[in-house]
Amino acid sequence: xxxxxDRERDRPWVMRTYAGHSSAAASNALYRRNLAKGQTGxxxxxxxxxxxxxxxxxxxxxxxxxxxxVPVGHLGDMRQLFEGIPLHEANTSMTINATAMWLLALYVxxxxxxxxxxxxxxxxVLAGLAGTTQNDIxxxxxxxxxxxxxxxxxxxxxxxxxxxxxxxAPRWNPINICSYHLQEAGATPTQExxxxxxxxxxxxDAVFGSGQVPEERRGEVVARISFFVNxxxxxxxxxxxxxxxxxxxxxxxxxRYGIExxxxxxxxxxxxxxxxxxxxxxxxxxxxxxxxxxxxxxxSRGARARAIQLPAWNEALGLPRPWDQQWALRMQxxxxxxxxxxxxxxxxxxxxxxxxxxxxxxxxxxxxxDRVQAMGGAVAAVESGYxxxxxxxxxxxxxxxxxAGEDVIVGVNRFTSTEPSPLQxxxxxxxxxxxxxxxxxxxxxxxxxxxxxxxxAVDAALRDxxxxxxxxxxxxxATLACARAGVTTGEWAGALREVFGEYRAPTGVSAAAxxxxxxxxxxxxxxxxxxxxxxxxxxLRMLVGKPGLDGHSNGAEQVAVRARDVGxxxxxxxxxxxxxxxxxxxxxxxxxxxxxxxxxxxxxxVVPAVVDGLRAAGAGDVPVIVGGIxxxxxxxxxxERGVARVFTPKDYALTDIMSEIxxxxxxxxxxxx
Length: 673
Known about the structure:
- Heterodimer of an alpha and a beta chain.
- It comes from Streptoalloteichus tenebrarius (strain ATCC 17920 / DSM 40477 / JCM 4838 / CBS 697.72 / NBRC 16177 / NCIMB 11028 / NRRL B-12390 / A12253. 1 / ISP 5477).
- Its cofactor is adenosylcob(III)alamin.
- By secondary structure, this protein is α/β, with parallel strands linked by helices.
């Protein structure tokens, strides 16, 4: 958005709703309704197969198609997704990382097709495209888990996109440095600022070191680097964090890269407030949480967000309905158009209290940036496991404070008595559900697409892509050729997997410091684990598994850390495992219990597959427990399928959960409680 002078009323930020599910057609209808309600930008949520480079008919895609976003398998899907939406007039944010180059190529191709239909010049259309591809792969290794390739090739893809957009689509933000998921993974404000800016340094060093951008255009590169942040409920601290972010970005771009134009150095960011801070218990409290968190990124004019998307009140329960998303949009509109917020200069300039907090965050962030740079930068700190272990330890400490009641979560660990909520009176209908037939239709559709296209053209485009990947050529043009030829998402990623290989990031569990919890309850459970192990004649072993493509591993990691703290031997192999791989590991390791974590909505497909697999392998006596965002009726179905226990976000006391897991093991082995 354009920036007014200090004496003008500030313009409202771009208002978005993060949306997409089921199919391109269903998501297109949702986008057009949201735009009609006054939304000023689009924010596309892609499903996990699309994000991780698989087609809908791949084994790992089972149960994941259309659940947390829209499946986009090829150019036809992208055409349908934006049917009736002129891309030259749109401002589109696409939450996509490992496959960002591919999705941008599909988007650009659709924009070119729309231009041809109305006789417009292709280059003028590309020059006017506005929006963002998230494209921050480093935070994927640390938090969200939708990475595909190793760090080096991933950074190359980002570099090629930045260089291509500077030349051809100068209004497009080719990367959105995303600290949002770092906060969800446990980052303190200092860590969030430091690690995000370390990522930005890694990207800029790679781009400028590639030789693809002339010296005189470096300022244009910096000007297109945007950020995407998380705003928690401690909104004064969060506001100070944003002022620190802006000051440090200005300092780094000026001193490290010599960028002289202050407009190029401006810190530009969008925000979604903290979705994982929303509660399943008393979910109506989430409304005020969302509004307070929005204040963190709007109150300070000098560090105000230029794009905002808000979650819905019921996201801790499942997929929000269109009405819920409308409510979140109206919150933004009331703040922007009914209040006087935008009429004033910065409210906090000159405040000694605010400046002291900003200085504290700045000092801590500078020290942490120096520490990471001394290790060799963000990529080296990822590969060594340093940053991941720091985040796991921070989240463990945060959970300890919540369980001890030191940090109050209203309706969860204090003020828990409640009246029945009329917002949930509809029961299961209080959230959006995805028809299981969606996946079957997507599988059929992508197979039909493969049959209809020109196979020779596809083979030639993929061959050229593989050949280019073996050189230092910019891969954007080869990717565009693949898009136009009808290549699928899985084929594009598969070709690059052949050249680049795949990657499994460190989990951070083994290196994470213990949470520091002591006291009678932890000691009691530790003794219970020891005694049960003695009765069985061996130390208790627990496998923590993440089946399918759900990369949100924070909960699984915290379960693994706490299980280790109470005396379990823990088997945790990270994310993105097939049910068959989990079963094989459980049998090979001889575990006493299998714990599965699923937050993507695929629990009814992947969990029974693990239960059935254990039975087929002769290990049907090994109990399976499940944790995740699981509606009550789904939990009942899982128990009917043989799952011993189901835990949801309301079950926040990990030590109590550990005690119940021991009870499950005792029941399964015929031992009394």
